[in-house]
């Protein structure tokens, strides 16, 4: 079944929220999608905590997501994220395997 690589970013400095959003929109999401060779990618801001941003990368299976862990692509993207945002944005990652899907 499909799997998602999820990146949760918390913008610690509200003054950079617009810049972070623009950077993710214009550069990072497209770069990550291509670099990971994901099926598709999408992102959004939490309605519960507006400082939290999520990016989702969909893959055919969990093995494909595991394959990007430790890859040169992930290392390069993480280094660029750290260079641009430093300690202004903290992030964590998760892998979720779809175990059930209903509907369209």
Account of the protein in words:
It contains 3 helices and 4 strands. It is α+β, with helices and mostly antiparallel strands and 104 residues long. The protein has a single domain, classed as 2-Layer Sandwich (Alpha-Beta Plaits), CATH 3.30.70.100. A 4-stranded antiparallel β-sheet has the order 2-3-1-4, covered by helices on one side. α1 (17-36) packs antiparallel against α3. The radius of gyration is 14 Å and the shape is globular. It starts with a strand and ends in a 7-residue tail after the last strand. The model has no long low-confidence stretch (mean pLDDT 96).
Reading the helices and strands in chain order gives EHEEHHE
- How many helices? The count is 3
The third-level CATH topology is Alpha-Beta Plaits
Any idea of the CATH class?
Answer: Alpha Beta
Instruction: Tell me the overall shape.
Output: globular
- The main sheet orders its strands as 2-3-1-4
Q: How far apart are the first and last residues' alpha carbons, in Å?
A: 15 Å
Number of strands: 4
Q: What's the helical proportion of residues?
A: 25-40%
Mean pLDDT: 96
């Amino acid at each position: 079944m499909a799997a998602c690589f999820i990146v949760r970013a918390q913008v610690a400095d509200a003054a950079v929220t617009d810049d972070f959003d623009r950077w993710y929109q214009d550069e990072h999401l497209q770069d990550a999608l291509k670099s990971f060779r994901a099926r598709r990618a999408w992102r959004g801001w939490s309605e519960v905590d507006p400082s939290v941003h999520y990016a989702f990368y969909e893959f055919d299976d969990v093995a494909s997501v595991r394959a990007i862990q430790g890859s040169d692509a992930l290392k390069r993207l993480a280094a660029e994220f750290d260079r641009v945002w430093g300690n202004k944005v903290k992030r964590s990652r998760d892998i979720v395997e779809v175990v059930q899907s209903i509907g369209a």
